[in-house]
Write the structure tokens for this entry.
Amino acid sequence: MPEFLQFLFSGLTVGAIYALIAVGFTLIYSSSDVINFAQGEFVMIGGMGTFFLGAAGVPLPLAALLAIAAATAVGLLLHRLAIDPAKDASAVTLIIITIGASILLRGVAGIGFDKNFHSLPPFIGAEPWNIGGAAVLPQSVLVLLGTGVIVLLLWLFMSRTLMGKAMIATAANRLAARLVGIDTSRVVALAFAISAAIGAIGGILVTPIALTSYDAGTLLALKGFAAAMLGGIGSPIGAVAGGLLVGLLEAFGAGYVSSAYKDAIAFLVILGVLFAMPQGLFGRGAIERV
Amino acid sequence: MNSVTTSPLAADRLTIAFGGIKAVNDVSFTVRPGEIFAIIGPNGAGKTTLFNLLSGIYAPRDGRVLLGGEDVTGEAPHQLARRGLSRTFQNLQIFLRMSAAENVMVGRHLHEKRNVFAHLLALPSVCRQNKETRARAEALLERVGLGNLSSRPASALPYGALKRLEIARALATEPKVLLLDEPAAGCNAVETRELEAIIRGIARDGIAVVLVEHDMRLVMDLSDRIHVLANGRTLAEGTAAEVRANPAVIEAYLGVAGVQEAARAGD
Amino acid sequence: MGNALTKLIENRYAAILTIAAIVLVLPFIVPSTFYLRIATLTFIFALAVLGLNLLMGFAGQVSLGHAGFFGVGAYAVAIGPTHLGVPSWAALPAGAVIAALIAFIVGRPILKLKGHYLAVATLGMGLLIGMVFTNEARWTGGPDGMPVARLVLFGWIARGPQTWYWISGVTLALGALLATNLIASPTGRAFRAIHDSEVAATVLGVDVARYKLIVFILSAVYAAVAGAYLALFDGLVTPGTAGFLRSIEFVTMAVLGGLGSVFGSVVGAAVLTVLPQVLTVFHDYETIALGAIMIAFMIFLRSGVVPSLAALIGRRTP
């Protein structure tokens, strides 16, 4: 039983990060039909940025804030320089652009930071707590709480503020949103900014547990995408559910089946979803009109 | 009296629903050989959905599609093409990166040898076949009045030309039944007259033509029979004169002015 | 003059003749074998990119995992002689067949997907193949890779840039010939039709699923042969051969040279093979450069170098 709980907690923890990435994907995709392959890099910037700023003498809380700000700035730049100029391009073109952005950021991180693994000190202590016989890191609990708070804040933003409603409108029908005076370009920029910020926060939260490195972004993006697809791309609740599920599947798969192919589990999930239920758990299928 | 078994195309109680709304609801008709059969109705009546059902793009929830008397319900579009069904699209699905001639050449695909290894090696038989395909394509372009535009990229052609290009391309498959989805949409009076001549020529060749159109003069001029759809259901069916006089049709679609306009087309 | 030049560029066989001419002439004008080595690498990568171009440029599909097939070919000629006693000259075609088989099995379900779903699925496929090469150390030597025995044909050992230059150059020319023939055939027209409008293609009788699978398998074979050549030439194979970065390199080469252009595949491969040699610091900045190139080309020069040049020359015609 303790083993099961162990996997459960570690699965939920890493799943929470996938959930944050998936929410980021969903935000951007809903408002612009772009799948942002550079999503994982925001997580990486959060973790790596905080570490390097901390190593340079900046107090960690401030370093974290600066890293989040940096990630947000990168997100906005990405939108402005790479996505907006190509907004009417085909899906394949946009994919190539965001992949290009992903490896560009990876390359910059490799040079600007370094190519080693790094960690951050746990926020509230390193001694594991005993929950039901399983050793749970306090940081894990923080990750789960932090994710919950972020998702809640996001939900409040989308449903209670005017800007949030503008985002929902743009996601529902971009042309109609423009016709009622919404600046959809700004909305998409905001989607990028928010996605970058929550990605970075997730990165900072999870680095004490999972380490980070300049190339951590790629696999994270793929797993986040798997989560978004499992939940149903375009659905924020789906993104969270999908993230947690992928994390759990990975933890239990690695624990009970094979840890060498742990990373393969997410891809198998993607393939399974694509063939068995392409619209995901909470999504709605699209109909092509001829 | 033609029975269902010799009809080139028949719909038997076709029904399809999207999210609870029946876009096509229990629609049946039987097209006669060599006939020009029109389907009219207000926007949203289900005409294009019906075409998508007939050409295999959608599978019906209920009902059957019969081609040449055989039940082809649920078969894929390329299989229906092999059986002699061809169509054009309301929203134009031109191969924009190819030339006009190449567009029509794709239409010859069914009649070409499909051995990939022969193609890789460019065997003499393939070269001969390429020449023949191109010749037939040029002939079809000539027929619809696009002969001098054959090597132009399709993206450079005006809208009216593209509509005729789609018809030439659909004819390249040597169909027995041709579905035309709003061929005259966006065409001016001159272009519509030219279109009428082309369609008459097609019917004279023995191909059954099923036409979705909003241009009532064209419909009344051309059609042997008209099937009226409204809200996914059949409203009426008959000759031009019968449909014009039908009070339900007048109310749902034609309107009094529409009837007068249609009457001007002459019988 | 402009008109004749345009006609020349558009002539179907211009690309192949140019490639053949380059292959024949190059050894006589380069100062040392170092350049032959670069040329050999260019030809090998161009072969892989050519296959990818058929898939992406002509048929309009997308594959972000093509290095997976490249790796299959490479590891086939490594594992065959070392673990199975299969000589290299047999392991090479065997690798191509295995790649074709993988493409067939994976392709049937995957190619039903479009756009980003297809991209992610192929990316996943490529990464999975790479994972197998990294993990199954007993067969593949693990993360450090394994040595590859030289190709031996009738007692003659194929080694060194001089030999491989000709092998890869001739294979590239042949590959380009086959590709050009295919494009000008009904199959090629089917690919291009699928690219522009799948629904129109299908109502005209084109079996879309079949052709997507054909082009996928073909592109896998091109990649596998190229991968095998690289392994035999280098004498070494590592999991990086099948890695994500390599898949991205292939896509960048195809995009840079021009999707939908046979000669563009060669140009793209040449630029991205020569550049790291010319700028020795390129290696450190490679990923940055690749990323920047992809973004810049997709925004500013979407059709790539060769088609853009051809259009430019064509426009100058009076």
Observations:
- Chain C touches chain A at residues 56, 60, 62, 64, 109-110, 112-117, 119-121, 123-125, 127-128, 131, 135, 199, 244-245, 248, 251-252, 255, 284-295, 298-299, 302 (CB under 8 Å).
- Chain C has a mean pLDDT of 89.
- DSSP finds 15 helices and four strands in chain C.
- The two ends of chain C are 10 Å apart (CA to CA).
